[in-house]
Amino acid sequence: MSILVYIEHAEGAIKKTSLEAVSYAKELAAIEGQDVAAVALGTIEESALSQAGTAGASKVLHVNDEKLNAGVIQAHADAVAQAFEKVGAQTLILAKSSLGDAVAARLSVKLEAGLVSNVVALPETNGGYKVKRSIYTGKAFAFSEITTDKKILAVKKNAVALKTDGASAAVEALEVNLPESDFAAKITATDKATDEISLPEADIIVSGGRGLKGPENWGLIEDLAKAMGAATGCSKPVSDSGWRPHHEHVGQTGVKVAPSLYIAVGISGAIQHLAGVNASKYIVVINKDPEAPFFKAADYGIVGDAFEILPKLTEAVKALK
Length: 321
Description:
By secondary structure, the chain is α/β, with parallel strands linked by helices. 27% of the residues lie in helices and 24% in strands. It is built from eight helices and 16 strands. The termini are far apart. The relative contact order is 0.12.
């Protein structure tokens, strides 16, 4: 019997969040005496899929159908359900994401499986099956009990350690039967951010606020981000003022992020912004106001003028490389 992992991919590679889900499944499988199989949908090279083995998968089932590239939710749910039955799984693991959430919800109904999202730890199986999850935008935790035989766990980004010390996985072609009704909804266009690194997937984010004084100074943010291999973000007032595009707006009403490192420059730290970033592993705040609320949520803080600090920080990062 296998634990099945639904993996997402983009730009010819498995997403980091999906590899984290594989590592989580591997730890769970070791406890339950099972192995880990993964399923990937759409067009991607076998050499890229085999990398799931480094995170703990023993094999990857590949449904190589270009119609699945668009991420049509019903079709993905149907294909994963067939893979679930194929490997005789009782547990499905996936990364929490916009696509993952939608697929998991449909699979919960289709498989009659209990679903817990925002999972941050392995389940407790003494006297039941209790799963710890993050709630209230990361401000608290709750334990949810699953009583069904089949289970679906959506793992929160950066909640588990990614392990890549395994061997490459075998990749097997999987044929599934997908009726045309699965493609009744058609994605006619997809608008993507033009950044080299997207905010939801970024491991490091450099974000700016009104303390930058104007869009003409954004080069300071971009220079540091480029030196660190980071994505760029901004506060809501910045995007509302037209300094930066709205897809860079980080916060409760914008993009919620969970990078390993979040650097906030010239951002006061309103509760709406904090709600979108408090899942970050480390937060660094740069602000000339020592009373800025953001410092209370920061792991590290620098009190000073961003126009003086950022060039020096950028040069220091370049020197380290």
